[in-house]
Write a structure and sequence with these properties.
Radius of gyration: 22 Å
Structural class: alpha+beta
Strand content: 15-25%
Number of helices: 8
Shape: elongated
Mean pLDDT: 88
Largest sheet: 5 strands, mixed, barrel
Number of strands: 5
Length: 221
């Protein structure tokens, strides 16, 4: 299972583009490097708007790369161990669906509002905004609410609400509580409900799920 450290790293990575863009706007608005030779050269050869677009595009590209590297670091061992059946258990997925847009609304609000509503030239505003980001990350970590983190889908993984079970449909009919309503993170873009999967618990009701060998579950077909 994950501890708080993994969640802090995950959310710090998620907010990295916002922090870098705010810092760039603060530095740019205060002309900290305006009198340097390289800044004068850039001013002569590159339009300011074009330069801003290049910098922000670079921040986004670098952030996406870091997203992938962090996801690889977090999940590479899980992918291998689940494949080799060293950890986790086999389950059937009875039903699954994507998270709704509303589930992402709080993250999007905390990501976009500072960019459009706060004066980036003020050091006080920058510090307050960074403090708010830290508070938001603490809230996410305290509540184990990692399901809406963009690091997942930006690194080729899917997040679903799912109903899973480690027993047969006959056992579930006798005891419906066997089925679990969970959040699953997986590389699978679509899941064959006739197949078995390997899964391991990350935190709370959130599981990492990997495709089992290509075998149907004869008890559940």
């Amino acid at each position: 299972m994950w501890g708080k450290r993994e969640q802090v790293i995950l959310w710090a990575t998620a907010y990295l583009p916002l922090v870098l863009i705010m810092v760039y706007r603060f530095v740019d608005s205060n002309d900290f490097f305006k009198k340097t030779e390289w800044a004068k050269w850039l001013a002569k050869h590159i339009d300011k708007t074009v330069f801003d677009v290049i910098v922000i595009a670079g921040i986004i590209v670098i952030s996406l790369l870091i997203y992938r590297l962090v996801a690889m670091w977090l999940f590479s061992d899980y992918d291998r161990q689940l494949k080799d059946k060293e950890i986790g258990k086999s389950v059937s997925v009875r039903k699954y669906e994507r998270l709704s847009v509303n589930d992402y609304s709080f993250f999007l609000m905390t990501l976009l509002l500072p960019l459009i509503s706060i004066d980036q030239a003020s050091a006080i505003n920058l510090m307050v905004t960074l403090a708010i980001v830290v508070i938001v990350i603490v809230i996410y970590v305290k509540t184990d609410f990692i399901s809406v983190c963009p690091v997942f889908f930006m690194s080729g993984r899917q997040v679903y609400k799912a109903i899973i079970s480690d027993q047969s449909k006959e056992a579930e009919a006798a005891d419906p509580s066997i089925r679990q309503e969970v959040i699953v993170i997986t590389r699978e873009k679509s899941m064959n409900l006739n197949n078995k999967f390997r899964t391991v618990k990350l935190i709370s009701n959130i599981f990492y799920l990997s495709s089992n060998s290509n075998n149907a579950d004869p008890d559940d077909v």
